[in-house]
Amino acid sequence: MSTQKRLNYLVNLGLAAVAGLSGCVAVALTIGAILAGLALDSLMDTRPLITILCIISSVPLSVIVMLLMVIRSARAIEKRQYGTTK
To answer: Kindly report the CA angle at 51 between 50 and 55, in degrees rounded to 5?
Structure first.
């Protein structure tokens, strides 16, 4: 395998790994929402309400962030591989 092909392969593999890490970002966002909800609940003395709202609102946010990461990585791979994006 030539040096240029090997470099392209390694970069594409790295971009695919970034797309795979989007699931970890979703977990981090959910944990952050739980911690923020618990902190706000203790400040406002509304024990489960704000925590539940933060967890529910973190679900669509994490889905959007995952989609953006995967789409951006896929476009970068496609651009490096074929020189164009659709």
So the answer is: 115
The closest of 56, 26, 53, 31 to 41, measured between CA atoms, is 53
pTM equals: 0.77
Distance from C-alpha of 68 to C-alpha of 12, rounded to nearest angstrom: 17
pLDDT of residue 81: 79
Q: What is the gyration radius of the CA atoms in the chain, in angstroms?
A: 19
| Band of residue 82 on the pLDDT scale cut at 50, 70, 90 | confident
Which amino acid, 41? D
Task: Give the domain ranges of the chain.
Answer: 27-78
Q: What is the pLDDT of residues 3-17, one digit of tens each?
A: 988 888 888 888 888
Do residues 33 and 58 lie in contact, with contact meaning Cβ atoms separated by under 8 Å?
yes
Assign residue 62 a region: left if phi > 0, alpha if psi is -120 to 50, beta otherwise? alpha
